[in-house]
Design brief:
about 140 residues; alpha+beta; Nuclear Transport Factor 2, Chain: A; three-stranded antiparallel beta sheet; two-stranded antiparallel sheet; globular
Length: about 140
Amino acid sequence: MNYLSMPLRLQSAIDKKLPKCSYQESIAQHIMLLILSHNGEVIGREDYGSMIWELEFNQLVKISDWEEGVRNSLVETIGKYEKRLRNVDVDVTLLEIEEENSNKTSHIRRRAQITVTGIMDRTNERFNFTTSLYISPLSQ
């Protein structure tokens, strides 16, 4: 079975040359879409997405509570919307990174590292996906 690679480009569709990807890449792309989507963004599926963006500007929540909230939201949404995976486990770590720009000015950015593991239903192979996101407002 062929899976479409994201992002989809209109010109590729018109030319009937849509890029394809593997089963594993398709799952990873869907998980990334779940991570980047805000709850309520998809009409009719209010629980599609993650709560990362609800917590993005909340500076009062403890880091451990933020990590646990995001982890729980991703476990729930991946379990509901990515049926090609089973035994899903999610790890979320929020790091504060000090960076220096070209003007030698130092600033702190927050980076969320998200790892999703599980078993792919069709192949019974282990699945592993890791991504990092910079979180505002300190990411600017």
